[in-house]
Amino acid sequence: MSPIKRTTMYSSGGKKLYAVRNADGSFKDIQTYERAHRADMAHKSAAETAGAARKAAKKKSPARKKAAKKVAKKAAKKAPARKRAAKKGARRK
């Protein structure tokens, strides 16, 4: 779907207007810039939707990495405690 072509005009009060024209050139719709812009921001483009899907797919793999890191950290924490106990025993002898 291609974006809507709009003609920019100003009202007598000085507000910016967007005018959408029909194929024959007559006005189909006239909106204030403020309302048209708000409506545009409310809708996501196809590119944004595709990007969000890619990000969601990527987010699943880091969770696995975090779990692996937690296991590695636990193992690393236990190892120094064993070493300390071995050193204490060596000193007592």
Any chance you could write out the topology, listing elements then pairs?
Layout: E1 6-10, E2 16-21, E3 27-32, H1 33-42, H2 46-92
Antiparallel strand pairs: 1-2, 2-3
Extract low-pLDDT stretches.
none
Overall form:
rod-shaped
SS class? alpha+beta
Main sheet specs: 3 strands, antiparallel
What is the oligomer described by this structure?
A: single chain
Helix content: 55-70%
How far apart are the first and last residues' alpha carbons, in Å?
82 Å
Mean pLDDT: 76
Rg, please?
A: 32 Å
| Number of DSSP helical runs | 2
For the largest sheet, list the strands in their spatial order.
1-2-3
**Helix-strand string:** EEEHH
Keywords:
93 residues, alpha+beta, 3-stranded antiparallel β-sheet, 2 helices, 3 strands
Characterize the structure shown.
- There is one protein chain.
- The chain is an alpha+beta fold and about 90 residues long.
- The chain has a domain at about 5-40.
- It is about 60% helix and about 20% strand.
- Strands 1-2-3 form a three-stranded antiparallel sheet.
- Strand 2 (about 15-20) and strand 3 (about 25-30) form a beta hairpin.
- The N and C termini lie far apart (about 80 Å).
In short:
The protein is of the alpha+beta class and 93 residues long. The chain contains two helices and three strands.
